[in-house]
Design goal:
The protein has 534 residues and is α+β, with helices and mostly antiparallel strands. The chain has 13 helices and 30 strands. Bound molecules: guanosine-5',3'-tetraphosphate (G4P).
Length: 534
């Protein structure tokens, strides 16, 4: 057998062990708590509470920007890698703050599955919905977790209907709660029919004790609570809400688990489902629509770029999702868009702010490449066998502001910061092709502007002023339509870094009127363009 085959086999085996996923949720649904409990169950932290600070109530490990610490939030995504049941789990952390940013969307481009966390008292909330739309566009398989079952909430049967009605995803409960809300005792595992009873541990700091009872025993010991849960389970069976692997992998149904991240009830079932149900990395489509085999030489794409993660080093880190082959630290790669060689001497696996140098990585893993100053979001890097993966879709901005350096003599710093933060995707930077040099910043969430302003001042030494604009909605357009729009009131055409044109409108109404009066105009919606979504 040749070495190439042996290497290929090794890559395939390693890829099969990987599960790369992200948690999507509305703020406060319990994502941070659940992340921490995953680490607890995987043995990556000895006791829960290590990740979440007691005083701040927020994760300390990923709070590496001063702004984050100031506001007690986690703005930027990090990657947590841990071993569980002989598998390697890559948990891509989407920022959980109230203000939305593009970063969150882009992280999903690097995931193979998502866990959607819902608060049992609230059901689907605004941000869950937005994030779910990205999952749908990418046909990501979604596992649902009904969290906070330890306290009074809504009727879970009613929530199943709501999930299906609101997002068109059919939930298929795998576990079902026993005990009324507020008196949550355990779950029926529908696969075995057994009752799993949980016992609380102090502060949920260690794994919940589990006791397994068969039906007869459960009926004797749990009485009414057991009978009610059994009836509900019979109902689920009657309507055919059963686990279906195929439709789950297609993003049509969602295995549903119930529990409480706080008390650890049901956390193990959920983590097991990530291993048993979520798919391992699969060959990715390249820009030409051809799937690159997992065993092909190393390739990956950048889904996030971050400068100055470590203020002491002033570095740029590109987060690369490995798509094929084996990554080995020190290998020289080619940067697909420039054709230039790229050294990987400084590669890091990332756990919040703590960086370990990594020696190797396989499909599904995330590698942090340091000194990646020429690399942009969406760029491909490969070893041999040239390849380019499709661009990560840019999302339709909803907020627009012009920006200027407050002090004229700081113009150079201003331009440098602007260009760097644009490259990192902190904000989109739009320019007037007609000549007005004042850049317009575009974002999906207000927080992006705050991060921009803060970093411009603290990292680049340029204090900036932002002025709001009246625009609220954007469409992609072409040169011919741009010419038609030029003299209209309430519309402005600006260019992005790649020279694509965006038409900004003061109101949705104005846009709709134009669309109906001029169906020949090119006004493409930007959001979740599934043909370009990975
Ligand atoms: P997020 O990352 O999605 O924003 O949510 P996070 O985990 O920070 O949880 C938000 C709040 O909900 C926290 O309370 C947390 O303790 C609580 N929580 C999470 N999971 C559960 C659960 O299963 N049951 C119950 N009852 N509560 C849960 P907090 O008071 O805001 O913060 P803290 O002081 O407890 O840290």
């Amino acid at each position: 057998m040749s070495t190439i085959t042996l290497d290929g086999e090794r890559v395939a085996l390693q890829a099969a062990r990987r599960r790369t996923f992200a948690i999507i949720s509305h703020p406060d649904a319990g994502k941070t708590t659940l992340t921490e409990k995953f680490l607890l169950y995987a043995g990556a932290v000895a006791e829960a509470g290590a990740v979440k600070t007691r005083e701040g109530g927020r994760r300390a490990r990923s709070d590496w920007m001063a702004l984050e610490q100031q506001r007690g939030i986690s703005i930027t995504s990090t990657v947590l890698q841990f071993a569980y049941r002989g598998h390697v789990v890559n948990l891509l952390d989407t920022p959980g703050h109230r203000d939305f940013s593009e970063d969150t969307y882009r992280v999903l481009a690097a995931a193979d599955a998502a866990v959607m966390v819902l608060d049992v008292a609230k059901g689907i909330e605004a941000q869950t919905l937005k994030l779910f739309e990205v999952c749908r566009a990418r046909r990501l398989p979604v596992i649902t977790f009904l969290n906070k079952c330890d306290r009074p909430g809504r009727d879970p049967l009613e929530l199943l209907d709501e999930i299906e009605a609101q997002i068109g995803l059919r939930p298929t409960p795998v576990t079902w709660p026993v005990g009324i809300p507020g008196d949550f005792r355990g779950v029926i595992d529908r696969r075995s029919g057994q009752f799993v009873r949980f016992a609380r541990t102090t502060r949920g700091a260690t794994a919940a004790e589990e006791q397994i009872l068969d039906r007869a025993q459960a009926s004797i010991e749990e009485g009414v609570a057991w009978h009610q849960a059994s009836e509900e389970v019979a109902l689920l069976q009657a309507v055919g809400a059963d686990l279906e692997l195929e439709s789950f992998l297609q993003g049509e149904t969602s295995p549903l688990f119930v529990g409480s991240a706080l008390t650890n009830f049901g956390v193990r079932h959920l983590l097991d489902a990530v291993i048993d149900l979520a798919p391992p990395p699969a060959p990715r489509f390249d820009a030409a629509g051809v799937r690159r085999p997992l065993e092909a030489p190393f390739s990956g794409f950048v889904f996030k770029v971050q400068a100055n993660m470590n203020p002491a080093h002033r570095d740029h880190v590109a987060f690369v999702r490995v798509c094929s082959g084996r990554f080995e630290r020190g290998m020289t790669l080619t940067h697909a868009s420039s054709g230039r060689p790229f050294s990987t001497k400084h590669a890091a696996g990332l756990f919040g702010s703590e960086r370990d140098t990594i020696e190797e990585a396989y499909p599904g893993d995330i590698v942090g490449l340091v000194n990646a100053s020429d690399v942009r979001i969406g760029d491909t890097l490969f070893e041999h066998g040239a390849v380019s993966f499709p661009a990560i879709p840019t999302f339709a901005p909803e907020l627009f502001a012009t920006t200027r350096a407050r002090e004229a003599d700081r113009y150079k710093q201003f331009r440098r910061g602007l260009s760097q933060l644009e490259r990192e995707g902190v904000v989109q930077v739009l320019q007037d092709p007609e000549g007005d040099p004042t850049p317009t910043l575009a974002a999906v969430g207000q927080m992006q502007f705050e991060v921009f302003t803060y970093r411009m001042e603290h990292e680049f030494g340029a204090v900036v002023d932002l002025s709001p604009t009246p625009y609220t909605v954007a469409r992609r357009t072409d040169v011919a339509t741009a010419r038609e729009l030029r003299d209209r009131r309430g519309v402005k055409v600006l260019a992005r870094h790649d020279n694509s044109l965006l038409a900004l409108f003061e109101s949705e109404y104005m846009l709709r009127r134009l669309e109906s009066d001029h169906p020949e105009f090119c006004l493409d919606q930007l959001l979740f363009d599934s043909s370009t979504a990975r």
